[in-house]
Amino acid sequence: MRSYLDFEKPVAELEAKVEELRAMSAGGNAVAVDDEIGRLEIKAGLALKELYGELTPWQKTQVARHPQRPHALDYVNALITNFVPLAGDRKFGDDAAIIGGVGRFRGEAICILGHEKGSDTESRIRHNFGMARPEGYRKAVRLMEMADRFGLPILSLVDTPGAYPGIGAEERGQAEAIARSTEACLALSVPNVAIVIGEGGSGGAIALATANRVLMLEHAIYSVISPEGAASILWRDSSKAQDAATNMKITAQDMVRFGVIDAIVPEPVGGAHRDPEAAIAAVGDAIAQALAPLRNLDAPSVRRQRREKFLAMGRALS
Which among 83, 97, 112, 192 could bridge 154 via Cys, Cβ 3.0 to 4.6 Å? Predict the structure, then answer.
């Protein structure tokens, strides 16, 4: 069953009428409803296109968090063949919030990392809603170093509200683990591409997204803190999250303008959750396009390009 966001109410009402008319038609009702169904479908499609053509930053935040939006494992299952998952940080344990492994992307051997939020209650709890602990980032470092050793390009699928802020995570060195993962990204001699597929939250995202090419889905968000967190700090009122989202400049369009990301991957009308197959296919094409020019670079050039990219961000705004 499709889940609708608050601002999608006009579309929900039209599509509910369509389903009602279809049920009447299937039940053998003599009323000619085909024309009416067609008219309502066109109206719903136009309403959806209009809504998604002018989303506010807060509405994009809601879309980025949509429970039916494809997550990291959906992309892995669709885009990666011969995927072999790898687990554990060899220090403490395994963290299911970050998935990783090796496989083939369009015939090429590749290492994959990603935040996984889960798709139902059980899996969301198991993956801790995509909020990684230190062992998750240390697992990522282990896999990055392995990929570097064997000359495998790295793909990171970023989708997290932020690193897990629990006591245990802090006791085990959360900040140090994030810093080490970011450092490992910068030191790689193989190309790495990151794509923000939903939420790119704080250092928890940067730890995997310090890449040669950084992409974002059209309705994804990328920020130093969640809108709710910013509102609670600035106004001491988390209900002002909508104002915070507007002022923080967190959308993909903002990130391109500021030079933080390299490209935006278009989503189907109505968001990636409306047509996951089309969204995943578009992401696959964008990844292939981003990797292509990096294949011919030698190791020093790969590292230099990545470092210069991030060092140039502050200069672009000065």
Answer: 192
